[in-house]
Amino acid sequence: MRQSQLFTKTRKEAPANEVSKNAILLIRAGYIHKEMAGVYSYLPLGLRVLKKIEDIIRNEMNTIGGIEMRTSIIQTKEVWEKSNRWDDNIVDNWFKTELKNGTEIGLSFTNEEAYSSMLTQYIHSYTDLPIYPYDFKNIFRNETRSKSGIMRGREFYWKALYSFSKDDAEHQEFYEKAKQAYKNIFQNVGIGHITYMTFASGGSFSKFSHEFQTITEAGEDTIYIDEAKGIAINKEVYTDEVIESLGLNKDKIIEQKAVEVGNIFSLGTKFSEPFNLSFTNESGEKQLVTMGSYGIGLGRLMGTIAEVLSDDKGLIWPTSVSPFSLHLIVLGKDKEGDTYKKAEEIYNELTKKGIEVLFDDRDESAGAKFADSDLIGIPMRVVVSDKSIAAGGVEIKERKGDKSEIITIEELYKTYKPNCE
RNA sequence: CGGAGUGUGGUGUAACGGCUAACAUACCUGGUUUGGGACCAGGUGACUCAGGGUUCGAAUCCCUGCACUCCGACCA
To answer: What pTM, to 2 d.p., does this model score?
Structure first.
């Protein structure tokens, strides 16, 4: 993409009403636009990152047997009354409205009900199980206090997978696979080294749920980490008994602020029971489906990456989620000159090869282009200038380092192959 | 939902109760410049969040509402 066609502009100053680092950087660099507290639009650059994250998650979900679909956002009152979650005294962050004819409806804040009620029409026999449907969709929560930029929004994009299994053993088998898939996801988006599987309260059907917590001061949770084991315990269940039951060494545990970037949860028959989601087993008996839920907030994940992978100059995206693979910058203003032509040629050639290139073809000073490039945070910068041409090619520099080097254009073409995830 | 604070050009800030609401940046014109947010000249752009009130006079003081931010509660 040509930067001259990217309508978003970078800013030197962040809006006065943003304090969180992720929102400040993402707004300054032109990734997101704030509509109101807790509600953000994703601008072209932001959407690219979101889609990269989505693809990484989708790939892992499909690998463990997930089947993508999409449940509706508008849902009727009756469905939620079955699980006793329509009442505002029980769930206080509903967005509710009504149809012209007076029918009460709600905007989904989670998906258990949608899946449980729908699947009663499709699950009848043990041969129909297990299944693992999942969604990417926007979710609405009328938070009394949104905060931390895109880390806790009123409208947010998430992935929710639900597992429907015949019994607990079958459920556990999938649950373990999901753990690994989640680890892979956080590894692949570049925060695996500071993300810990964390034991948290499990509700009525299992002793624990598992949260994936990424260390950052911007987080709302406090976790206790055992580095050696690579796992953590959420403060809400942090007791001597739990430490012991997990076989952790209390003396080596460290306390950290963290943000929950994903969670997996055993639901047992909590939802299959009210919806009578059951099947006929091999013996001809009716049996309730055993469920699990597996969620990741993509906006929060993107915000977390921005929080932890950035410096005073701006964002530093990992290649896997960067909006572009390369930031190609041409210096000099003579658009008819050889340097400019060479840059155009490189842009066309790389684009033809399928490499995602952001081409800064604007009539800006070198300093302005470099500053913008650092702020936008594409992992690799390629500069074409009279100087680089004279030195034998183009200058490449990693966003995260200080060193730059000159390579020939042929080397550039050889090095940058299409970015296959 | 409790507590605290803040609303001024697109953005960031300034202005004692008193001249035509100032400065920077962004934007537009022209010129010059191109390896770390260039320079010169000119220009557009604000009923100071909304509605009331006090006053000869309100961006400034008071009231109400709304919005935003922070702390706490909540987060299925």
So the answer is: 0.96
